[in-house]
Amino acid sequence: MGAVIVDLDGTMVDTLGDFEVALNRMLAELQLPPVDRAFIERTVGKGSEHLIRCVLAEQMRRLDQGDSACPAVQPEARYEHAWRSYQAHYRAINGDFSDVYPGVREGLAALQARGLPMACLTNKPRAFALDLLRTKGLADYFSLVLGGDSFDRKKPDPMPLLRTCEALGVSPERTLMIGDSQNDALAARAAGCPVVLVTYGYNHGEPVRAVDADAHIDRLDQLLV
User: What element of type H or E holds 127?
Assistant: First the structure.
């Protein structure tokens, strides 16, 4: 391998607590019922926009508003308010309710010691990703941090991986993608990158070992490159 791309949420940091707090503060502001952690875990991974829309639709459905013919009580009518609220609440607590997974620091240090350039590529907004990496002491491992708002498309589209490989100056077939979900695997396969998945992250409620990958590992420091 000549370079490594690493996903963030569910791969390096368990951020479900951050999502839960920010989303429920947003929902309280919108006078909607709180969302449970299991729903967040099944939904997270495709970017903040997708997450907020899914949560809005689910919680409004629970109030029997989602099927109303009245446009004013459709989820999309509340999206802009929800987006602004979520951004403010997430920014305020980013990293406070999250933890670095065991083996992550050791794994990143081992890759860095090999002299491999590393990029963090996430569907999370880039500013939030940067703040989280700094808060958790992981930022110095990466020469490049790119988020869901860095490109016109998000994983599982291969475009973010291809652009990241270009920025690293290494061909896709020599750039390892490390992630936790089918999103990462599909993007890597389409881009021509080898892919390793961790077994502890968020894969939309599905068994991650069933996802096509070159390897599955229980800790990042088990990786052999």
Answer: helix 126-135
> Which residues contact residue 36 at a Cβ distance below 8 angstroms, ignoring those fewer than 6 apart?
none
Please give the structure tokens belonging to residue 49: 């926009």
> Which residues is 196 bridged to in the sheet?
178, 215
Q: Which residues of 161-194 are buried (b: 16+ CB within 10 A; e: fewer)?
A: bbbbbebbebebeebbbbbbbbbbbbbbbbbebb
Q: Which letter, b or e, does each residue of 4-35 get, where b requires 16 or more Cβ atoms within 10 Å of its Cβ?
A: bbbbbbbbbbbbbbbbbbbbbbbbeeeebeeb
Please say if the pLDDT value at position 70 is more than 70.
Answer: no
Place 72 in a pLDDT band, splitting at 50, 70 and 90: very low
Tokens for 115, please give them: 């002299």
Joined tokens for residue 124: 């999370």
Three-class secondary structure of residue 222 per DSSP? helix
Q: Phi and psi at residue 210, in whole multiples of 5°?
A: -80, -10
In this prediction the pTM is: 0.91
Contact predicate 100/136, CB 8 Å:
yes
Catalytic residues: 7
